[in-house]
Amino acid sequence: MANLKLTTARTLKWNAIDRISSQLIYAVVGVVLANILSREEFGLVGALAIFQSFATIFIDSGFGAALLREKHTPSQTDYSTVFWFNTGVSLTVYAALFIAAPGIAMMFDKSEALIPMSRVMFLTFVINGLAIVQTNRLMKRMEVKMIAVSNTVALIVSGAVGVWLAIRGYGAWAMVWYSVVMAAVKALILWGTGHWMPALTFSIATLRKIHRVGASVFSSALLNTISLNIYNFVIGVFYSISDLGLYNQADKWSKMGYTSISQTLTSSFVPMLSEAQDSPSDFVRYVTKTTRFTAFILFPAMTGMALVATPLFHLLFAHKWDDAIPLFRILAIRGIFIVLISLYSNYLLALGKARALFASEIIKDALIFVAILTTIFSRSITTLILGQMAAALLTWLILLPLTSRSLRHHFSAPRPTQAASSPSTSDSTSAQPGTAIPHSTASRSESATANFDSTTTDSATAQPGTAIPSTVSILTLLRPILPFVALTASAAGGAYLLNPLFATVTAGLSLFLASLIRLLLLSLTALLLYLLLLRLFRVPELPEALSYLLGRFRRR
Q1: pLDDT digits (tens, 9 = 90+) for 381-413
Q2: Which of 247, 255, 355, 476 is the most buried (most CB within 10 A)?
């Protein structure tokens, strides 16, 4: 158990390094391109990204994620089978989209430029398909250092190529080659350092073995991709390519926040949850702590992005993308619910709850479809995006009882009980093997939790190997979140009330300098208020985060 904690800490560290470095480079390149290229050029690439996203889902078909979820280490035959399957499907899908390129162009304002651009850009999912197994092998072994390195190097090289082409006047083609070069460099690094080659074997038995979870993941991923890209499609078809470019800018910058949080936590905690799927007390305790730690980061990050939207956009783009600011704010708040929905889906995935996972995606897509039908006739993109946020909120509220019921049902069957414990060892969860709080500040965290949220770990008191009682309720998932909602709202509200003062202080300065000062003042004020409230209420996540960063990470 100790090794699992240290491995998880190391994995979380490299995932955080990966996401932070990648997003910084991505942000720099994105700012340069956004200042050079037009709305229409961004719209053209956004139209192609719709088909690229769907093709990527079909290529993997959920089998890579199914291998990641396997409790036991997959064999060479398993990995080779999935690799050859991915390769065959990727070539087939590329051939189909190559032929369909003229039809894609006709769909979006008859933009003939889309035909050659699509045939080049769609090469990215073929290249990415070749690297899926290499990536999954490293994630399964929780050795994500080279994934971080490959992502960072690929972004640097491709960013340099994209910026150079944009400056040279290649327009939307700069973004096309940026995507292709990034996929190629990442694949080359993973293949060069992965120390794995596929065997000339293909096992139908392997596909059958992982088909159930793989099919569920594929179905869920397909529906999730529909929900993420349907607005691109609707805006591109029913509005204009220019409007699509506007939406893509708002969506891209908001996604940089919530996808980083979601991907970092997913790749760090899903293997750990899979290891604990047979221990009810460990699993529920990990769920509680993961939810709390996610909320600790998620709520201030996304609320802060919405708070500083205006000075941030003015600092980066002057007034060029002002129309995207209201959309960005809405999408940033929506990102909170997107991450929580993804978190619950990963809890279901770790337990192999295929039907519940699929049902959650059906619910999410159905609500998005209803939101589109009720807002599209307004002819206002802002109203359309407000409906998108409302659909995400309702999805999260519906998933609360669905996820808690799935957890309760999974652990409701009688399990072999362990030998009776002595009174001296049964008083504390930490005295039992496999139930120690996974950080060095356990006693302080327990007392802090008792002061601030006395029922956060109410379900962790059951002994390993026993059934979890009916206390795995909606409150088990909701209670860890509520404190951070209140703390974040208080911090953001305090910073917002001081915004007129900041505007007065920066009056008369240039747009760039005024935006920079206002951005710093708003961010620092909100952050200091949040940290002060965390300290005041003795919320354990703050010392835990410092402990991991300064302790466990340094030792690894």
Answers
A1: 899 999 999 999 999 999 888 888 877 776 665
A2: 247
Say if residues 283 and 276 touch (Cβ distance below 8 Å): yes
Taking alpha carbons only, the member of 82, 87, 86, 71 closest to residue 208 is 82
State the Cα angle at 248 between 102 and 359, rounded to 5°.
Answer: 85
Q: How far is CA 332 from CA 319, 374, 392, 485, in A?
A: 20, 22, 12, 15
Looking at the whole model, is its pTM more than 0.85? Answer: no
- Burial letters 488-526, b for 16+ CB under 10 A, else e: beebbebbeeebeebeeebeeeeeeebbbbbbebbbebb
Q: What pLDDT shows up at residue 51?
A: 77
What is the radius of gyration, based on Cα positions, of the chain? 24
| Rounded CA separation 50/57 (Å) | 11
Residue 155 or residue 229, greater confidence? 155
DSSP label of 552: I
Q: Go through 243-268 and write b for each residue having 16 or more CB atoms within 10 A of its CB, e for each that does not.
A: bbbbbbbbbbbbbbbbbbbbbbbbbb
Q: Which runs of consecutive H residues, i.e. helices, occur in 239-279?
A: 241-275
Both tokens of 279, joined, read: 């221990």
- CB neighbour burial string for 426-436, b if at least 16 within 10 angstroms, e if fewer: eeebeebeebb
Assess contact for 540 and 441: CB atoms under 8 A: yes
Angle at 221 between CA 27 and CA 53, to 5 degrees: 50
Plot region of 277 (φ>0 → left; ψ -120 to 50 → alpha; else → beta) = alpha
